[in-house]
Amino acid sequence: MDKLDLIKSNKELVQYYDDFNKTVKKYINIKAKYSDQELPYTQSKFGGKPYLIDKEKYPYGTDGNPLKLLAQLNFTEIPHLNNFPEDGILQFYISFIDKLGLLGADFDNPTKQDLFRIIYIQGDVVDENTAIRDYQFPETGKDYYFPVTGEFKLDFKIIEELISYQDHRFSQTIGNRPHKLDISETTLDELYKITDSNVHKIGGYPHFTQWDPRDRDGYRDYDTLLFQITSQHTADNLNKPAEIMWGDMGVANFFIKSEKLIQRDFTDVLYNWDCF
């Protein structure tokens, strides 16, 4: 049973069926599996070594320290989603050396790419044979915290979902905040489960452990979830350390304005992460 059917079959939620129906959106679900072997430079991955074709262009933070690859998305491996690239590589780098332990985030100025960087490499230049292999990529070691331990290969699948109960547009779309809808506590818990979006993903609706950082002046037009990576314990880690952990079971989101995404302009991206 899909999520709309769950809304329709619930005697309390059915009154909101038409409103939820208007929010149906496709997204790319990402399954991350630990890899015990180093993945190809051009392959989609969490962690690991990035595809680099110019040593002089490796990203550094404004503090003078190198940034580290959080995730790399090769769109030739990913089902196409409206407005997103059909080819090319999108890389997400964040700081792991900042003294405050904020992993490159600036919560007062979340679009300021001082200690994080989004890099898009056009598809016509992507070639595994041109990847630089002799670069001394930064390692976190034991002295620094980084959310991705190990290297993860990724699988992608298109799925439909409804607006997340945490999205700042929920009350405007459905008519009220979730806890103020005309439903019982039991049904409210069911609604939370139906509209939960705590997965690795491209597009769709976001998940937060705290609140939507866009719900304030100046940030509401970051209407597209570019990428989300959440916390994940890994059971099949072959006795090697492998996990994804944002603080205490948190999640990170990257948002972009839809017109900037269409233009392939990734210089204006909102980066936020939170945890319990």
UniProtKB/TrEMBL annotation:
<dbReference type="InterPro" id="IPR015315">
    <property type="entry name" value="DUF1963"/>
</dbReference>
<dbReference type="InterPro" id="IPR035948">
    <property type="entry name" value="YwqG-like_sf"/>
</dbReference>
<protein>
    <recommendedName>
        <fullName>DUF1963 domain-containing protein</fullName>
    </recommendedName>
</protein>
<dbReference type="Pfam" id="PF09234">
    <property type="entry name" value="DUF1963"/>
</dbReference>
